[in-house]
């Protein structure tokens, strides 16, 4: 089985779906990750990285995190951080589609339509992936990541303090459609190890939440079926991921 994750920035894969990706990897599946950008305009630390230096750093962090998760090296689409919403969607969907055609995934994981945090890059990547899947007959199961079913409310409140969400998000719009899981011990440890690789970005998140809250947030993941083909995967993965 081959699983494809498509994301906007380095660290999206580990924070939102690290447990799921690690679970597929430990089953022996091929796990392939696409990142639209190198995250060069992400949060900088006191070292004062330039955008170019931060892109290099975050690309290296992504490589290390994917190794922790058991995934293959990332495919880079080369878009500028913060520019995805202005990109030509037809071309971007074509680029995603080329990856789909090359690796022939059995399952695709990406952001849900709201992009989880509301980030325009996240929402744009969802549209690209959705278009690419529809163009191929909508036969590939597509899962979207979400937050509202399982992320701790106090954790979300603390994340708002560091502007981790765009105004109006999370939008709490899935009306019970989301499927939440709590990771088992081994998957959580693997996910935390991957998140630690993304030190340039996750450092401020860990500081804002505190160690206990950070681990509690990492321990839960939520998915929604983005097409009819994905619905049966939700029930299947609940027992695989949960303790």
CATH architecture: 3-Layer(aba) Sandwich
In what range is the share of β-strand residues? Answer: 15-25%
Proportion in helices: 40-55%
Largest sheet strand order: 3-2-1-4-5-7-6
The assigned structural class equals alpha/beta
Number of domains: 1
Uncertain residue segments: none
Q: Kindly report the average pLDDT value.
A: 89
Q: Can you identify the CATH superfamily?
A: LmbE-like
Oligomer description: single chain
Rounded to an integer in angstroms, the radius of gyration calculated over CA atoms is 16 Å
Figure out the total of helices: 9
CATH topology-level fold name? Rossmann fold
Order of helices and strands: EHEHEHEHEHEHHHEH
The top-level CATH class is Alpha Beta
Number of strands: 7
Largest sheet: 7 strands, mixed
Question: Separation of termini?
Answer: 23 Å
Q: Choose one word for the global shape.
A: globular
Describe this structure in words.
It is a single chain. With 243 residues, this protein is an alpha/beta fold. The chain has a single domain, classed as Rossmann fold. The chain is built from nine helices and seven strands. A seven-stranded mixed β-sheet has the order 3-2-1-4-5-7-6, sandwiched between helices. α4 links the parallel β4 and β5. α1 crosses α6, α2 packs antiparallel against α6 and α3 packs across α4.
List keywords for this structure.
alpha/beta; Rossmann fold; seven-stranded mixed β-sheet; 9 helices
Layout of secondary structure:
Blueprint: E1 2-7, H1 12-26, E2 30-37, H2 51-69, E3 75-79, H3 89-103, E4 107-111, H4 120-135, E5 142-146, H5 153-161, E6 179-182, H6 185-197, H7 199-209, H8 211-218, E7 220-225, H9 231-241
Helix pairs in contact: 1-2, 1-6, 2-6, 3-4, 7-8
């Amino acid at each position: 089985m081959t699983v494809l994750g498509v994301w906007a920035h380095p660290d999206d894969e580990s924070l939102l779906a690290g447990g799921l990706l690690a679970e597929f990897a430990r089953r022996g599946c091929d796990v392939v990750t696409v990142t639209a950008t190198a995250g060069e305009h992400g949060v900088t630390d006191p070292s004062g990285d330039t955008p170019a230096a931060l892109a290099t750093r975050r690309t290296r962090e992504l490589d290390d995190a994917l190794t922790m998760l058991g995934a293959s090296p990332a495919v880079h689409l080369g878009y500028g951080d913060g520019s995805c919403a202005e990109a030509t969607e037809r071309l971007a969907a074509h680029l995603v589609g080329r990856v789909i055609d090359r690796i022939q995934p059995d399952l695709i994981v990406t952001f849900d339509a709201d992009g989880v945090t509301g980030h325009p890059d996240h929402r744009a990547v969802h549209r690209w992936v959705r278009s690419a899947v529809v163009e191929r007959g909508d036969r590939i199961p597509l899962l979207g990541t979400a937050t509202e079913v399982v992320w701790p409310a106090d954790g979300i409140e603390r994340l708002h303090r560091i502007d981790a969400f765009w105004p109006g998000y999370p939008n709490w719009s899935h009306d019970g459609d989301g499927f939440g899981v709590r990771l088992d011990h081994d998957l959580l440890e693997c996910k935390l190890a991957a998140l630690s690789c993304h030190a340039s970005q996750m450092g401020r998140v860990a500081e804002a939440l505190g160690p206990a809250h950070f681990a509690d947030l990492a321990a839960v993941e939520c998915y929604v079926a983005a097409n009819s083909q994905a619905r049966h995967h939700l029930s299947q993965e609940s027992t695989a991921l949960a303790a």
